[in-house]
Amino acid sequence: MQPDTVATQPIAGQKPGTSGLRKKTRTFMEPHFLENYVQSIIDGIGGVVGQTLVVGGDGRYFNDRAIQVILRMLAANGAAGAVVGQGGILSTPAASHLIRKRGTGGGFILSASHNPGGIDADFGLKFNGPNGGPASEGVTAKIFAATEAITEYRIVEAQDVDLDTIGTSTLGDLSVEIVNPVADYAELMESLFDFGKIRALFASGFRMRFDAMHAVTGPYATAILEDTLGAATGTVINGTPSPDFGQGHPDPNPVWAKTLMDEMYGDDSPDFGAASDGDGDRNMIVGRRQYVTPSDSLALLAAHAHRAPAYANGLAGVARSMPTSGAVDRVAEAQGIDCYETPTGWKFFGTLLDAGKVTLCGEESAGTGSDHVREKDGLWAVLLWLNILADSGQSVADLMAALWRDFGRCYYSRHDYEDVEVDKANAVMDGLRARLATLPGTQVAGLTVTFADEFAYDDPVDGSRAEAQGLRIGFEGGARAVFRLSGTGTVGATIRMYLERLETSADALDQPAETALRPVVDAALTLSDLAALTGRDSPNVIT
Ligand code: G1P
Ligand code: ZN
């Protein structure tokens, strides 16, 4: 089987964002678009000759076609092997685990995460390195440079590989192994948590609802929660992955997981609710009439992780993305461990995890994870919560009340202004950036600005520097507003406005977040002039 070398030329717009390349599905389906990007990854990482790579995705529209192309290109580029999830399915954390467990050269993960799927929705592709984590900034820069210089790609002509049958076949000189996508991951989870205790919890009548949102975690959650841990049949809802996620928006937050929220706040609600996103790396946690913000969830997990066998000896340190609330900082301080503040995106946690500086990390965007893989991990977070609930015997609401009593409560919210014209979004950011130096001392909406800066990060492990990672405005008393532009959208620009306020007085820990954050929202809107510059008087999504 002779590889074909196909002449091509650079295609504009192949710059990887916060998490790989995300585009409209139809864009990915255009002639050469996928092939150019795959060849650029291969060239950007220095080739794949003799290597084995993991390949899998979240099952969205075009997942299977794209995998066939990637396999043919791996064969043509001299790779030795590919490990592929059956049916082309691998959750992002399961892919990360397989990359590590098999000692492979990395993996291709096909997903646009929580973005809707379908021919008129979104598609994405990212490369994870041999440590199982998203390619570093340095590597993505090389991949991007390759997309701008490409003149040809290599591909073999071949029949489709049967992705549905477990076993090994060959494609030219490439050995293709189709594996059960759940088995290795389920085994890893069992090694981390006290499954006996969680089983006993379910056996005692504890009720849970897990919304897989028609996305990739369905098979994982059903196998682990229902088949292994004995949760009642029907605990997992929307559990069959579909190419367009049941026409839904597989983002686990109170807006998009509204059905679950309604059930958890209704009469006779289950004890515990959770959801995960398109590719299984995000999670939402909700107790009976008790939504837990992702920032609070990270803090709670840090405070109680020792209840799970994997973390019984304590945490080496923790890390959070800059816009994530300071709740976990306070827990870390009490435990006497380091807390790192990194730019948005999981790729920035990799060096800290590899160096053993942190055990847990998380982002306000519903991502939490640990050193067991190099991605955030939705089901892992749910299982750690279950382990904590089983071990403590307390409810979600009780655990949260105790956390706030001990550390104060960081009221938190994110306002997203989606599909803003790029020029207008830039005007908001540029205008605010220009005024940062003048802000300290300013009084606005009853708050006084104490600091204002643009976040930059110096990686303490590899010394790399990431600049322009968001605008921060701090207020007296521990409130903060952050502005940044999304790096994962596929149309226009999305302005994210992150709001936080620390409350420590015992009688003010039970307010609606909206009320507690009102002054911060007002101050942020005034200082940024967002409404006038964008013509928007309210955000599209508040989480
Ligand atoms: C968003 C989240 C970020 C997360 C990323 C990938 O990126 O904000 O925390 O790591 O998705 O899931 P953004 O669109 O803000 O660049
Ligand atoms: Zn995701």
User: Helical residue percent?
Assistant: 25-40%
Query: What ligands are attached or bound here?
Result: 1-O-phosphono-alpha-D-glucopyranose, zinc ion
- The 3D shape can be described as globular
Class of secondary structure makeup: alpha/beta
CATH architecture of the largest domain: 3-Layer(aba) Sandwich
- At the fourth level of CATH, the homologous superfamily of the largest domain is Alpha-D-Glucose-1,6-Bisphosphate, subunit A, domain 3
Given the structure, what is the number of helices?
17
Comma- or semicolon-separated keywords:
Alpha-D-Glucose-1,6-Bisphosphate, Chain A, domain 3; binds zinc ion; binds 1-O-phosphono-alpha-D-glucopyranose; TATA-Binding Protein
Secondary structure layout plus pairing:
Elements: E1 4-7, E2 21-24, H1 25-28, H2 33-44, E3 52-57, H3 63-76, E4 81-89, H4 92-101, E5 107-110, E6 122-128, H5 137-149, E7 152-155, E8 167-171, E9 174-179, H6 183-192, H7 195-203, E10 208-211, H8 217-228, E11 236-237, H9 258-264, E12 272-276, E13 283-287, E14 290-292, H10 294-304, E15 317-321, H11 327-335, E16 338-342, H12 350-354, E17 360-363, E18 367-370, H13 378-392, H14 396-407, E19 409-420, H15 422-435, E20 443-444, E21 447-454, E22 457-458, E23 465-466, E24 471-475, E25 479-485, E26 493-503, H16 513-528, H17 530-534, E27 541-542
Parallel strand pairs: 3-4, 3-5, 4-9, 10-11, 10-12, 15-16, 15-17
Antiparallel strand pairs: 1-7, 2-6, 5-6, 8-9, 12-13, 13-14, 17-18, 19-26, 19-27, 20-21, 21-24, 22-23, 24-25, 25-26
Helix pairs in contact: 2-3, 2-5, 7-13, 10-11
The structure holds 1-O-phosphono-alpha-D-glucopyranose and zinc ion.
The site of zinc ion (ZN) has 8 residues, from loops.
